TrEMBL record:
It comes from the Eukaryota. May play a role in an as yet undefined retina-specific signal transduction. Could bind to photoactivated-phosphorylated red/green opsins. The keyword S-adenosyl-L-methionine does not apply. This is Arrestin-C. It comes from Astatotilapia calliptera. Keywords: Sensory transduction, Vision. The lineage of its organism: Eukaryota, Metazoa, Chordata, Craniata, Vertebrata. Pfam families: Arrestin_C, Arrestin_N.
């Protein structure tokens, strides 16, 4: 059973109510964001009440803003007037009906439809000495009292506002496909035959915390020895704003001591498990957005239709298989080379069981 989330303005004139704070992106569409604003007209002084939903990229802490710079860039923003009402009544969902029943006659409903090409809620893990809010993509619903919806010359007092953060999230698709496969043949100095490496994943999608199974097949036709096999998982974080920059961070790595002698073959499945718990001190690592101090995990892979360019933070992962090859002897260190293949993998959370409609348990914040 879900709670009702409520935030009241400092002057008590308006209050924002939501039935939930997580909204699911199904790739082709996003759940409608709906809520209610309670308005006490006696405190408006002939002003109006507006509400907006904003998706923004935060790239600096508020406490660094000492010369009037803004450290937020709105990726998408939509605002509506809720009081006085401007239009006719629309069909209301059961959640909206429950909220309106709880709030009473002073309740005014609103809803937003986010476009599917917005990024999901993601935070970049701060360093040990960093303070303030983490960089990343967040979503905010804000109700406020003003004379006009967006007048840059109008100063809106903090006591005339109330806001709640929400999350846009994606879950793993219901149907899991076969995983990626990659192969590479590589020749070495003083050898006319190659080392052939083939690696494959058991499936396309893995849940956070589950081991990833990697099948490795080696055909060593050379006179060299494969000394070790390393399997790692890299997180690729693409920050798309004015330009596109991609940052790569290793989130899991394990070396296996199996050797493959010259003129021989090898086949084995290995397992590696990327976990946020093992990467707590990596500054800039992307994690799923969270509300307050709730637990989170490594950022989920971003799913998109690919039709429109997505701004913000886009997450992907690759499994990297590395063979360290050396001929041994005096020239072993000089002639040794690596054989490397990479496999795309999707890391996500499973879709939870359906949650019942809201109750009237109210919490502030």
């Amino acid at each position: 059973m879900s709670k009702v989330f409520k935030k009241t303005s400092g002057n008590g004139t308006i209050a924002l109510y939501l039935g939930k704070r997580d909204f699911v992106d199904n790739v082709d569409s996003v759940e409608i964001v709906e809520g209610v604003v309670k308005v006490d007209p006696s405190g408006l002084n002939n002003r109006k009440v507006y509400v907006y939903l904003a998706c923004a990229f935060r790239y600096g802490s508020d406490d660094l803003d000492v010369i009037g710079l803004t450290f937020r860039r709105d990726i998408w923003l939509h605002r509506i007037q809720v009081y006085p009402p401007t239009g006719g009544s629309e069909a209301k969902s059961p959640m909206m009906e429950s909220l309106l029943k709880k709030v009473g006659e002073q309740g005014h409903a609103f809803s937003f439809q986010m476009p599917p090409n917005l990024p999901c809620s993601v935070s970049l893990q701060p360093g040990l000495n960093d303070s303030g809010k983490a960089c990343g993509v967040d979503f905010e619903i804000k109700a406020y009292i003003a004379n006009a919806p967006d007048n840059p010359d109008e100063v809106i007092q903090k006591k005339d506002t109330c806001r709640l953060m929400i999350r846009k999230i994606q879950f793993a698709p219901a149907n899991n496909k076969a995983g990626a496969k990659a192969d590479l043949s590589k020749q070495f100095m003083m050898s006319d035959k190659p080392v052939h490496l083939e690696a494959s994943l058991e499936k396309e999608v893995y849940y956070h915390g589950d081991p990833i199974t990697v099948k490795v097949q080696i055909n060593n036709e050379t006179n060299k020895t494969v000394k070790k096999i390393k399997i790692s998982v890299n997180q690729l974080t693409s920050v798309v704003l004015y330009s596109s920059d991609t940052y790569v961070k290793e989130v899991c790595a394990q070396e296996f001591g199996e050797t493959v002698n010259a003129i021989s073959t090898f086949e084995k499945s290995f397992q590696v498990t990327p976990l946020l718990a093992n990467n707590k001190e990596k500054r800039g690592l992307a994690v799923d957005g969270r509300l307050k101090d709730q637990d989170t995990n490594l950022a989920s892979t971003t799913l998109s239709q690919g039709e429109k360019e997505m701004q913000g933070i886009i997450i992907s992962y690759k499994v990297k298989v590395t063979l360290t090859v050396s001929s041994g002897g005096l020239l072993g260190g000089l002639t040794g080379r690596d054989v490397v293949v990479e496999l795309p993998v999707t890391l996500m959370s499973p879709k939870p069981a359906e949650v019942s409609d809201i109750t009237v348990n109210t919490t502030d914040g």
